[in-house]
Amino acid sequence: MNKIEIKTGSQKLIAATAFLTVIGFSLWVYQIVRGLFVSDMRNLSPWGLYITMFMFFVGLSAGGLIIATVPRVFGLKGFKPVSKIAVYLAICCTVLAGLFIVVDLGRPERMWHLLAYSNLGSPLMWDVLVIPTYLIVSTVYLWATLRAEKGKGSEASLKMLSTVALITAILVHSVTAWIFGLQIGRPFWHTSLLAPMFISSALVSGLALTLFVVLILQKVGYLQRDPESKCRMASLLGLFVLVDLFLLFCELITAAYPLGGTEFQVVKTMLTGIFAPMFWIEVLGGLLAAFLLLNTGTQKDNRLVGGASLLAILGIFFKRYQLLLGGFQFPNLTHFSITTGPVAPDAGTWWRGLQGSFIYFPSIFEWSLTIGVVSMGALLLTLGLKYLPLKPAK
Question: What pTM was computed for the model?
Answer without folding.
Answer: 0.86
